[in-house]
Amino acid sequence: MGKCDLSYCVRRMTEDDISAVSELDRRIFPDMKMPTNFENELKNCMAHYIVACECDSAKSINSNDSNVIGYAGLWIMVSEAHIVNIAVAHNYRRRGLGELLLLALIELALDMKCNMMTLEVRASNVTAQRLYQKYGFTSRGVRKGYYNDNREDGIIMTVDNINSKTFKGEYKKLKGDYQKKRGAAEIILTAPIS
Ligand SMILES: CC(C)(COP(=O)(O)OP(=O)(O)OC[C@H]1O[C@@H](n2cnc3c(N)ncnc32)[C@H](O)[C@@H]1OP(=O)(O)O)[C@@H](O)C(=O)NCCC(=O)NCCS
Fold this sequence. Notes:
With about 190 residues, the chain is α+β, with helices and mostly antiparallel strands. The chain has five helices and eight strands, in the order βααβββαβαββαβ. The chain has one domain (about 5-190): Aminopeptidase (3-Layer(aba) Sandwich), CATH 3.40.630. The protein has helices spanning about 20-30, 40-45, 95-110, 125-135, 165-180; strands spanning about 5-10, 45-55, 65-75, 80-90, 115-120, 140-145, 150-160, 185-190. Strand 4 (about 80-90), helix 3 and strand 5 form a beta-alpha-beta unit. The longest helix is centred in the last third of the chain and has 18 residues, at about 165-180. The protein binds coenzyme A. Coenzyme A binds next to strand 4, helix 3 and helix 4.
């Protein structure tokens, strides 16, 4: 991605994004029996949701006419950050957006003084597992039949200490590599404008 007027950015999800994100969620997870209630999630003080957008640099990053093409969520419980989901629209995959969302979640977890990051991922979802592995998440066990649509197992993946020198060093390096490869994507994680 070179210098151009249109680029990607990540910002906090707001109420104005709910319908676009719900639509995206239905398209990405058509078999989900209980779709995520983003209205409730935004009211949940433990939950932190972000969206990836195509941003026209001529417009404000908070502009609600930006096109939402991915989202991710984190639940923060004391010092543990639990990744609820990361999802990118089908026709925008393999362009670095999933990685951009994960970089932003890690940044959020560090800002919120968390130590540990964890998640569950379907045993068959090798793509997502690769993304998490790239950022140091390792497999810690299996929740048998965790997913109630098809009783698929959930693999637990965790990073123990995101404040360690080793993790921070690796994170900095990966972020630098990302910027070299992908260019002008922005992460703006200030509180949403009410
Ligand atoms: C998982 C998902 C978010 C990845 O998003 P994406 O924007 O396509 O991923 P990126 O382009 O940022 O790729 C980042 C890394 O993910 C891994 N990855 C992504 N797509 C991959 C694929 N098709 N095969 C193998 N690895 C892949 C690679 O490690 C990649 O790093 P690299 O570019 O250095 O190889 C996306 O596939 C998605 O939305 N899937 C459906 C929802 C889902 O399953 N979410 C996870 C829930 S736990």
